[in-house]
Design a protein that fits this description.
Largest sheet: 7 strands, parallel
Strand content: 15-25%
Bound molecules: iron/sulfur cluster
Oligomer: single chain
Helix content: 40-55%
Structural class: alpha/beta
Strand order of the largest sheet: 3-6-2-7-12-1-13
CATH superfamily of the largest domain: P-loop containing nucleotide triphosphate hydrolases
Distance between the termini: 49 Å
Number of strands: 20
Number of helices: 25
């Protein structure tokens, strides 16, 4: 079988990856690949899976959650098609709501959007949907658009704009195109969410069994699956639902009963506690859901969103299984206002992923931070996959990884003195580095506490990541940060936040990354339950539920520094716990971490 490689030369490390992919495909196995940035993952995986899929009549589902990765995949596919003259049919799609051109839908929550779209389709009140067909057959406009774009590889933005110009629903057009496609680029949910996958597969006549699934940035998959299965009901939502139900006596009565139930559950509650399913039981549960669902439909006919609909979705999910879930009631304080929330939290991503993995021809999970591979294999439910870790393709001498075990953000060690020590350490490093530096903290709170001392010591312009920063604000901040590269600036951000993933600052735009402390999860009930769950299931509760996820965030943040072959930079891990065996073992083998108490000397020498 010929590889359809999109570039002139295949590098040695890519060749290794390609051979492993081939082995997985031929043996109908799965591959989990820790493949650092710069390896050329997309080119290697697409050039290998495409000829195999064409020969064996399989469809490739390329799953990614990032817009930039969609673009990279599309560019790679265009090159493959051009260079090898293959009859490749590709569709690029994202979530339905993000493709929707119906005015006003962008402000809805995902749940509200799903209900709203369903409603307007059923009522024939979305012209973009009704225009798709005429007399139960594809309309002239639809056929025309499909024909016109048949041979082209369009990215999702191009697909939206060409559909919009014909007043046709872009998502439905992409579904029609997907029927013929060999490669479909989309989000994890299109395959791993049972409801979305079943609708998508039915409409496109595709099956998981006849597919090769490529999961890009696969380190995100477990949490995305957990989030997808988790639901939450807040006292605010119920209050709004009651207001919404004013004209509907029965529905209002039911909602008031639900509110009373929630109030009773949270009386005498200090912070949070576990709840049994039976503790939140409402008489005539099924009738309540039916009545509220009916009223939610009426509300949605008048306005786009319905809080009653949100309550219904929670009630339906609450009836689910106990195994792999935690039920938690909590009191939350926000802007001096106390609210109550009842959560049904998923702990086990394999509840969604196992069936898909078992059915597909091959699943290839790849990421620059898929480490430790064994953990991802176990928690996603793989059985005997190929696990491969590839070495960093960039020159070792361009990277200096330092571990400074002088300070700690451990809860019991936090004090003003410790914050001053940390501020002194990070300011002396960032002042010395010739260029831009990003400092990642475990939380906004700690960042602000340390910044009290840092700001008077730092000699460079400082930028701050704000909680809930918009996409536009983030881009503006990055643009200004880049402009400061000559004088050097410092961005104070949070590990696991907006700047620790999905940003590229290649060349001389970023010279150093400092990770302050360990970005461990809050030791709340959810974390405790996750630890207990993985302890029972694999006897690895602390590793899988606490330590490894924190180290994954650290490595992800550190990965911002070196983005291309010519990048040169210093990465600092500032916490004594990084030198402890249970954390240290999580660094990738080729990280070459040097422990030092005299970092300035080493940094100075490195940049000479
Ligand atoms: S049918 Fe399409 S255009 Fe209409 S609301 Fe749904 S997603 Fe939007």
């Amino acid at each position: 079988m010929n590889i359809l490689f999109p570039h002139e030369n295949i590098r040695k490390i890519q060749d290794e990856f390609i051979n492993d992919i081939l082995l997985a495909l031929k043996e109908k196995k799965h591959l989990l690949a820790h493949a650092p940035t710069g390896l050329g993952k997309s080119a290697a995986v697409l050039s290998t899976t495409i000829p195999y899929a064409l020969e064996n009549n399989l469809t490739i589902f390329f799953l990614t959650s990032r817009h930039t990765q969609h673009k990279i995949a599309i560019e790679t596919l265009k090159k493959i098609k051009e260079l090898h003259n293959t009859d490749l049919k590709v569709v690029d799609l994202i979530g339905k709501q993000h493709m929707c051109i119906y005015p006003g839908t962008e402000t809805l929550t995902p749940q509200q959007f799903t209900e709203y779209c369903k409603e307007v389709v059923e009522n024939n009140s979305c012209q973009y949907y009704t225009n798709l067909k005429f007399n139960n057959k594809l309309s002239f406009e639809t056929k025309n658009l499909l024909n016109k774009t048949k041979k082209e590889i369009l990215d999702v933005d191009e697909l939206i704009s060409s559909s919009k110009s014909c007043s046709l629903c872009p998502y439905e057009i992409s579904i029609l195109k997907a029927k013929e496609a060999n490669v479909i680029i989309m989000d994890y949910y299109h395959i791993f969410s049972p409801a979305i996958a079943s609708a998508f597969l039915n409409k496109t006549d595709k099956t998981i069994q006849e597919s090769i699934i490529i999961v890009d940035e696969a380190h995100n998959l477990p949490q995305r699956m957990r989030d997808h299965l988790s639901v939450r009901l807040t006292s605010t939502t119920i209050e709004r639902a009651i207001t919404e139900a004013q004209p509907y006596e029965q529905a209002k009565k039911y909602l008031e009963e639900i509110k009373e139930k929630l109030d009773n559950l949270s009386s005498n509650l200090q912070e949070e506690r576990l709840v049994k399913k039976s503790e939140f039981h409402i008489e005539e549960y099924g009738d309540v859901i039916l009545e509220l669902e009916k009223i939610a439909d009426i509300v949605r006919e008048i306005k786009k969103r319905s809080y009653i609909g949100t309550v219904v979705q929670f009630l339906q999910a609450w009836q689910g299984q106990d195994e792999g879930f935690a039920r938690i009631i909590a009191k939350n304080k926000f802007n001096d206002r106390i609210t109550t929330s009842l959560s049904y939290k998923c702990l086990d991503p394999s509840l969604l992923s196992t069936e898909v993995i078992d059915s597909a021809h091959s699943v290839i999970c790849m990421s620059g931070t898929l480490t430790p591979l064994e953990m991802y294999s176990e928690i996603l439910g793989f059985k005997n996959p190929i696990l491969k870790s590839y070495s960093n393709p960039f020159p070792q001498e361009n990277r200096l990884n330092l571990l400074i075990p002088k300070t700690s953000t451990k809860f019991t060690k936090r004090s003003m003195g410790m914050y001053q020590d940390i501020a002194r350490e990070i300011s002396s490093i960032s002042n010395l580095v010739p260029g831009n530096c990003i400092i990642f903290f475990p939380s906004y709170q700690l960042r602000d506490a340390i910044d009290v001392y840092f700001k008077s010591l730092c000699k460079k312009t400082t930028y701050y990541e704000q909680k809930g920063i918009s996409k536009q604000e983030k881009e503006t901040l990055l643009d200004n940060f880049k402009k400061d590269k000559e004088m050097g600036a410092v961005l104070l951000a949070v590990a696991g936040g907006n700047f620790s993933e999905g940003i590229d600052l290649p060349g001389d735009l970023l010279k150093s990354v400092i990770v302050v402390g360990l970005p461990l999860s809050r030791p709340d009930l959810e974390t405790t339950e996750l630890i207990n769950y993985y302890d029972q299931k694999y006897s690895k509760g602390w590793d899988y539920g606490y330590i490894f996820p924190a180290m994954q965030k650290t490595i992800q943040a550190a990965g911002r520094c070196i983005r291309s072959e010519s990048d040169k930079g210093v990465i600092v891990f500032l916490d004594e716990r990084y030198s402890h065996e249970n954390y240290y073992k999580c660094f990738p083998k080729d990280f070459n971490v040097h422990t030092t108490m005299l970092p300035l000397k080493r940094i100075e020498e490195f940049f000479k």
